[in-house]
Amino acid sequence: MKTCAMVFTIGWGAALAFGWIALAAPASEPGSLQTFNMLLAAMGAGAGLWSWLRIRRGC
Hints:
Blueprint: H1 2-23, H2 31-56
Helix pairs in contact: 1-2
């Protein structure tokens, strides 16, 4: 249960942090870096959602 809770917190934290970086990036930032930030945000959201589902089932 503790592991799922840690993955939940870290996953959603990463989703928020990298999502904000991708959205607040200046226009001069390379597109590949912005895409990379969006991928990291999506992976964080996926990890957070997966761990939340595991916590709901009792991990």
